[in-house]
Structure formats: C-alpha cells, structure tokens
Amino acid sequence: MPASPRRATLATVAASAGVSVATVSKVLNGRSDVAPATRTLVESLLREHDYVGLSPRRGESAVTDTVEVQFDDDFNAYSTEIIQGVVTAGAELGVGVVVSVRKKIDQPAVWARHLAAAGRRALISVTCHELTTRQLTALSRVQLPLVMIDPLNLPDASATSVGSTNFAGGLAATQHLLSLGHRRIAYIGGPTTAACNQARLHGYRAAMEAEGAPVLPGYTRFGQFRYQVGLEHGAAVLGLPEPPTAIFAGCDEMALGVMEAARARGLRIPEDLSIVGFDDTQIARMASPPLTTVRQPLREMGGVALRTALRLAAGEKVDSHHVELATELVVRGSTADVTCSEHA
Questions:
Q1: What is the per-residue pLDDT across 255-282, written as a single tens digit (0 to 9) for each?
Q2: Please, is 320 exposed, middle or buried when counting C-beta atoms within 10 Å of its C-beta (0-12, 13-18, 19+)?
Q3: Domain HTH lacI-type: where (predicted)?
Q4: Are 231 and 265 within 8 A, CB to CB?
Q5: Quick check: 112 and 141 in contact, CB under 8 A?
Q6: Is the whole-model pTM more than 0.70?
Q7: Are residues 79 and 134 in the same domain?
Q8: Is 260 found in the same domain as 307?
Q9: Do residues 177 and 267 share a domain?
Q10: Do residues 279 and 293 touch, judged by C-beta distance below 8 A?
C-alpha cells in the first residue's frame, strides 16, 4: 500500500504562521488570549494544512501534539517532580505528554523511528547514562528535537539541556554546615562521571578549602543516586576511626539512607550528626526530622524543558543550548550546631 502523507503538525502550522506552537495550541483550544488577527491567520492555515485537530465537535477533545518524557531508570521522588513540571506545562499549553521508561536502547534507529511514527513532536530525556552519538544521530535523522534534563555530561551545541546551579548548591550546603561549627564534613555523592555530581563535589571542596577545613581520607564516597547507596556509604563513613559530625548527601534519597545508617549506630539527628540533602523533593519534608536540603527547581526544570522542546519543534532558535536554574538552601531540622563534646 502507498504510504499515507505525513499529517500536518502544530509545528508545521506554527512555522507557516510565524508564531509559537503554544499560540497555535491556544487557538485550537479556544483560548481567548490570542489577538483576533493572529487567530484568523492560524485558523486559515489550519484549514489549509488540513490539520485534523481543527474545530472538534462538542464533547470531543482537540487533537494535540505530544511530547515524550523518557527515563532510563525506575521512577523515584526526583523523577516524580520532573514529571509534574512537564505535565503541568503541557496542560497549560494544550500539549499531550507521554511518560515512558526505556532502560536499554539496542537499536537507536528503530527507537527514533518509533518515536516519530508515534507522532511525538519532541523528546525530553532524563537519563542516568550518557546518550551515545548513534542515538543523537538517529534522533536528528528523523528530525525529532531533543531536550535533556540534568544530563550526565554537558552535551555539545547539537543538543539542548536544562539543569541547575549545582556548584552553587554544593557550596551553599557545605557553607551552612561550616557556619554551624562543623569541620569534619563528609560528602556522599552520585556517579563520579556525572556532571551534576562533579559540580556539587567541587562546591563542597571549594567551601572546605576556603574555610581551611581538611577533607579527611574516606570522607568522599560515590555511587548511584539511591537510598541504598546512602545507607551503605553512610555506614562506612560513620565507621571511620574519626567519623564526621556532618554529612552532605548528593540527593534527598541518599540523605535518608544516611539517616538510617546513623540511627542504626544509635546516633541522634541533628544532635550527634547533621545531614544536608539535595533536590528538596517531597521526601525531604516527610523525613524525621525534616531534611535540610538544597532546593533544585525540578518542576520548573520540567516546564522549561517542555517549552524549549516546543520551540525547537517549531523550528525556532533557542538563546542557549544549556540553561541552569538557581538552587536555594532550605534549612529544616536535620542540621544543628556542633556540640561542646564534638569540639573537644
């Protein structure tokens, strides 16, 4: 059978009209915040392109373009925040969001063609592993824009990414502990190859060096951003001959693992051990005591990623291929001043 013509997309219409994909979505969904002249032009082009989402009958939903958010690991508190941000932005813009988990990509070309055939207008990738050149090439060949969130390594200009100020966050977390009088501060972080972990580690080391506080042997440990890693490394560092009085963990999930390791040794938090996390997910607020952490604006990052993906799908240029959103220290109950006995 002859191949059916590729249907017009929001990006096609937006490019023809010289407007954003979001504006076309607003017209399709009957939003009032569109200038009359722009609405008339967009509606005319929708008819010209025979867009299937034009003028749905009462009770029917407008057909919208979809963007896929793809993870390569199981969902956790971090990924939930990202998803919430993307879905919220999608609802505001009238864009469908599909969430998937793909742990292994053996055939990049088939993977990319499948995404394009499913009608995806763009891909948002949240990955624990570096995307390969073959995968990036496959997406480019099917003209599927890619936006990465907190990528393992900062990509070149051919890929667009959204992250946060990880160095500043690591610096703020360590400076907070130093301001409380702690000098024996350990860092339990993520994979050594991850750019976000390297930046947090550099922030930690910069704060320690500026204060003249030595980083003792065994005080820096690394693994996956997971609870079990925090539990295991927390137990190891607390078992050192000269254990730390404070620990900065590379994510909230790891920080909760450290908390449990401390409790298993009979340590009180924060009286005997201060702990700082990173992310400010829901589990930070639910922890006992509530976790002092560095707020990474995960929901905002998801929203920025979606809006950037739509701009790329519409053929627009972006101002920067890597955007960093500001982090912020949130002080709660898991940190306190060093006691007199710890100074002794």
A1: 999 999 999 999 999 999 999 999 999 9
A2: exposed
A3: 8-52
A4: no
A5: yes
A6: yes
A7: yes
A8: no
A9: yes
A10: yes
